[in-house]
């Protein structure tokens, strides 16, 4: 404590007074007052010297100043008389001790309390200090310390030193936003829309010493242009110096058109390696709205049934992982703060509202660990060891009229700051099945083949837009290897081949950074012993989730990983589900790679090595893993883990979707874990499926190797065309409200052009009527909508009205869900779909509308370059219609040798028009000798074989198209053999079809097939 006070007392004032010398000559009297104010000495007052009341008491404290402190400062209070020479702003340093974070209210002279949140000091007799600004009168003052809203810390003493006259540098960003940095005092305030939202924020860094932004004696401001992943902007640098100390910089990044900014902290000079950096800490955060204020806890991972928690601010006193928010759910105004870089540091956002009224305490701490959140059993490692500069992660600060927009921007910023290391997924939204849902440890080859057969013939309508599914073997796939990782993988190869023969994609599972055995033995694929590769804390292996963590940088871990992934690729697997990845991010005593010192550095090394071994050959699907840091390495990730079938598990999943939907910007797809129907009620089945649609993908999990209640349910629900079309978009719905604490939101919304969708969940035990304000839900409050409930497919079933305006009412039975489609009748045409496909007569264009108003016609336009379109035909519109309409147009003369681009131009009777999305069809020329395919048997009833007269590499798609141009069956193959067997023929109606074979380069060959 003596060090802190000496730094405060020694603050230099010479440069600020030098700047005002001319002014002082003109106003000598004011200058003398300033001189007296600036030279008032720092003063310290023991808390026990004050007047105690309401149960406050004096407690012995050997490490406290004077050997005592004042405690019981909840309802209890202490009033300390103080005397200063001049009126003005003073730095108040409160020395306190507390075992957990607590707030003390400091009230000068009976005025407005200043809430001071005090982080845990390490114990109730272990002093720490925190400094805030306070205004005092000249002469006698009284300082009251208490906390009428909760429990307070123990107080050792208080000290005052005069603040320097401010020297402000304003940094503008966005619209009417600015950062005011006070060079004289080392703190900054942030104004959004000209309102002060963050006040007197400071920064600090912990290396061998503590470096506070308020402690430096010299500060300068400079700017430079910068172009980075966020665009072209300005880098604002506050450079801080002090004789004999490491240098420190506070850096701000601003970009034109962006309503948020970024900040980071940098230590410079020898010894700047660091284990903790705090770029922002403020005792004054005011979001300018105070009706239903919430502080959002964001988990570090998705393990151990962790939940997001939108706490009422009055109960908030926690660290949120990587990002946090304070917002008013009523007005939706809110502040979002978080790290956008996760490859070096673990970052915590400390949010405190407990014991406060209208303001909050916020601190962003890089170098934070907490076993209950990050799973670490030791503190954060050191960063930039042996280097001459140490940089914190870049922190985004955003204040928005809608806190959800702040998180959308935050998710996008994460994707820009740390681009994907894995290749970007451009294929269709993944649909599939995973064995852990119901079969679990009983998986074997016959069961796996039976599941494939079920989806092949029992549910032919359940396919993604690529007309395929992922059939994924989870844990216990080694039942088929006969010897673990060193076993015989022939059954796995057989399974993968069988999947492909049915037009599906085989998937596999592995946890690459854990040791379930937990005993010393040789690591598969290497000469190392497992005990050499265990991650250790205090010399002992770290156990988490029942397994020992493996050091991701150890050569034994790498050799084992390389061997196993190589086997998976050789088997023909096209998807891998990776699990228990958080083990690779644990802080450790040390790592094999001596350049690595933190858990996130180790995670980056391990995950990059894993992705390198996969070599772009698989869809990468992450299960238990860090929420944000995994975005670089996975296409798809569970937003929550270990949820299965009942309504409570659906609610658990959707808690994560409610408050983590914005991670859609970090991953290609999010999913809701196992969609298991089992023997639950039909309503719970609907809710479980709806959770997948709302979250982004459909991964089913029933035991389809046998027949049960779930069989018919799956055949009905998983072949509902409306639901599948909605799910195929892979788009996460947005929560309508954010005030559900650690529970799930009941209403989610998705806007898609002319249509909007509301997903409504009733998690309770009795039916519930929802009256939904459409404007609050993000739709129009004045337009008229027609509605359709997608589970029933009806316009009247399970809902109160088919035409709504302003408010939508629906009654949802207990433990059930509904998904309602809204078509805006104010729009001329509501499109359901528009497709363009080759047929035996040219190009078949098909489209469907859900409603039409004043629609005269559709003009079909074609282009050969995707830019210049020409009309090639017209189809009359329906005028006014509120029912589904289907349209088709044949382009009998597509342009050969090039890609043909098609779009629709919808024209009203009054001449107004709108254009559709663009579809393309490849008509590049092919060698006639290579375009012939032979099929047999023809006619055929049960099977279809296609003999190719050339070898086709890459992805090959086979389609059966009826004579109306409708695709009735589609199968995908990779590097097929000379003969392709096409399953799924039996259910087709008898008649003539066109068989189309499309190669990876877009060449289409076709011939006729007669189905008996």
Automatic annotation (TrEMBL):
Gene3D superfamilies: Aldolase class I, Galactose-binding domain-like, Golgi alpha-mannosidase II
Residue stretches making up the CBM6 domain: 43-161
Protein name, as recorded: CBM35 domain-containing protein
Stretch forming the signal peptide: 1-42
Key words, A-Z: Glycosidase, Hydrolase, Signal
GO molecular function, one term: hydrolase activity, hydrolyzing O-glycosyl compounds
Family: Belongs to the glycosyl hydrolase 27 family.
PANTHER family per the UniProt record, alphabetical: ALPHA-GALACTOSIDASE MEL1, ALPHA-GALACTOSIDASE/ALPHA-N-ACETYLGALACTOSAMINIDASE
Domain of life: Bacteria
GO terms of biological process kind: carbohydrate metabolic process
């Amino acid at each position: 404590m003596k060090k802190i006070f000496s730094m405060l007392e020694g603050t230099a004032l010479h440069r600020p007074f030098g700047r005002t010398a001319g002014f002082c000559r003109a106003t000598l009297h004011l200058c003398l007052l300033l001189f007296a104010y600036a030279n008032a000495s720092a003063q310290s007052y023991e808390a026990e010297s004050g007047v105690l009341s309401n149960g406050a008491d004096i407690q012995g404290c050997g490490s406290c100043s004077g050997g005592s402190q004042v405690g019981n400062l909840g309802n209890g209070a202490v009033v300390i008389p103080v005397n200063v020479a001049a009126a003005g702003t003073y730095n108040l340093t409160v020395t306190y001790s507390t075992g957990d974070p607590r707030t003390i209210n400091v009230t000068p002279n009976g005025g407005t309390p200043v809430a001071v949140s005090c982080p845990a000091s390490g114990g109730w007799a272990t002093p720490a200090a925190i400094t805030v600004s306070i205004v005092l009168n000249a002469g006698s003052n009284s300082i009251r310390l208490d906390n009428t809203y909760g429990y307070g810390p123990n107080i050792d003493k208080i000290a005052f030193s005069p603040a320097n006259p401010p020297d402000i540098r304003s940094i503008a960003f966005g619209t009417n936003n600015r950062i005011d940095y006070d060079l004289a005092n080392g703190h900054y305030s942030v104004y959004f829309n000209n309102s002060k939202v963050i006040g007197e924020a400071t920064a600090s860094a912990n290396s061998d010493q503590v470096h506070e932004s308020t402690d430096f004696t010299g500060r300068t401001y400079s700017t430079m242009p910068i172009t980075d992943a966020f665009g072209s902007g300005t880098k604002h640098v506050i450079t801080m110096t002090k004789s004999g100390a490491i240098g420190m910089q506070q850096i701000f990044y601003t970009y034109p058109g962006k309503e948020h900014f970024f900040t980071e902290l940098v230590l410079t000079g020898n010894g700047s390696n660091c284990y903790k950096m705090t770029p922002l800490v403020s005792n004054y955060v005011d979001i300018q709205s105070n009706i239903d204020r919430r502080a959002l806890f964001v988990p570090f991972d998705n393990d151990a049934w962790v939940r997001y928690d939108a706490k009422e601010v009055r109960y908030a006193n926690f660290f949120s992982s990587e990002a946090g928010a304070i917002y008013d759910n009523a007005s939706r105004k809110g502040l979002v703060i978080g790290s956008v870089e996760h490859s070096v540091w673990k970052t915590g956002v400390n949010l405190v509202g407990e014991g406060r009224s209208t303001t909050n305490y916020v601190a962003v701490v890089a170098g934070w660990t907490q076993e209950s959140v990050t799973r670490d059993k030791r503190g954060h490692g050191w960063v930039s060891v042996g280097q001459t500069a140490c940089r914190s992660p870049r922190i985004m600060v955003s204040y928005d009229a809608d806190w959800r927009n702040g998180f959308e921007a935050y998710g996008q910023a994460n994707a820009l700051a740390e681009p994907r290391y894995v290749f970007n997924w451009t294929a269709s939204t993944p649909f599939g099945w995973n064995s852990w849902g119901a079969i679990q440890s009983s998986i074997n080859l016959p069961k796996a083949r039976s599941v494939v057969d079920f989806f092949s013939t029992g549910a032919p309508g359940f396919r993604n837009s690529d007309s395929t599914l992922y059939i994924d073997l989870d844990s216990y796939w080694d039942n088929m290897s006969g010897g673990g990782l060193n076993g015989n993988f022939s059954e796995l190869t057989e399974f993968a081949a069988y999947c492909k023969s049915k037009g599906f994609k085989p998937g596999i599972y592995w946890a690459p950074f854990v040791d379930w055995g937990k005993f010393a033995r040789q690591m598969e694929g290497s000469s190392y012993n497992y005990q050499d590769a265990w991650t250790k804390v205090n010399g002992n292996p770290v156990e988490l989730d029942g397994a020992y963590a493996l050091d991701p940088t150890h050569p034994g871990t790498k050799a084992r990983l390389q061997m196993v992934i190589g086997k998976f690729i050789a088997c023909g697997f096209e998807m891998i589900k990776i699990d228990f990845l958080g083990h690779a991010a644990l802080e450790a005593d040390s790592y094999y790679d001596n350049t690595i010192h933190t858990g996130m550095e180790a995670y980056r090394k391990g995950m990059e090595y894993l992705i390198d071994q996969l070599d772009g050959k698989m869809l990468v699907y992450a299960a238990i893993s860090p929420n944000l840091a995994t975005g670089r390495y996975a296409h798809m990730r569970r937003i929550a883990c270990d949820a299965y079938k009942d309504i409570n598990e659906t609610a658990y999943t959707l808690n994560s979707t409610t408050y983590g939907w914005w991670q859609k910007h970090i991953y290609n797809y999010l999913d809701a874990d196992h969609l298991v129907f089992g023997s639950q009620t039909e309503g719970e089945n609907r809710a479980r499926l709806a959770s997948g649609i709302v979250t982004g993908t459909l991964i089913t999990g029933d035991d389809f190797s046998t027949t049960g209640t779930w069989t018919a349910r799956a055949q009905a629900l998983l072949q509902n065309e409306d639901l599948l079309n909605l799910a195929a978009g892979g788009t996460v719905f947005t929560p309508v409200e954010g005030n559900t604490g650690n529970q799930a939101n009941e209403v989610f919304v998705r806007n898609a052009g002319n249509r909007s969708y509301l997903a409504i969940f009733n998690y309770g035990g009795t039916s519930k009527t929802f009256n939904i304000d459409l404007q609050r839900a993000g739709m129009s409050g004045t337009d008229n909508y027609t509605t359709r409930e997608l589970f029933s497919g009806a316009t009247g079933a399970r809902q109160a009205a088919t035409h709504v305006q302003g408010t939508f009412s629906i009654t949802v039975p207990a433990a059930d869900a509904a998904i309602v489609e809204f078509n805006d009748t104010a729009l001329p045409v509501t499109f359901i779909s528009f497709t363009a496909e080759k047929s035996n007569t040219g190009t078949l264009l098909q489209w469907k509308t859900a409603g039409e108003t004043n629609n005269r016609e559709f003009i079909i336009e074609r282009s050969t370059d995707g830019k210049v379109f020409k009309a090639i035909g017209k189809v009359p519109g329906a005028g006014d219609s509120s029912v589904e309409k289907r349209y088709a147009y044949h382009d009998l003369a597509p342009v050969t040798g090039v890609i043909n681009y098609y779009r629709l131009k919808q024209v009203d009777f009054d001449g107004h028009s709108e254009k559709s999305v663009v579809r393309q069809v490849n008509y590049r020329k092919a060698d006639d000798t290579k375009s012939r395919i032979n099929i047999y048997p023809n006619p055929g009833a049960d099977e279809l074989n296609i003999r190719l007269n050339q070898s086709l590499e890459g992805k090959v798609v086979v389609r059966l198209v009826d004579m109306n141009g409708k695709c009735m069956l589609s199968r995908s193959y990779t590097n097929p053999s000379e003969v392709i067997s096409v399953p799924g023929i039996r259910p087709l109606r008898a008649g003539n079809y066109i068989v189309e074979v499309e190669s990876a380069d877009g060449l289409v060959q076709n011939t006729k097939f007669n189905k008996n």
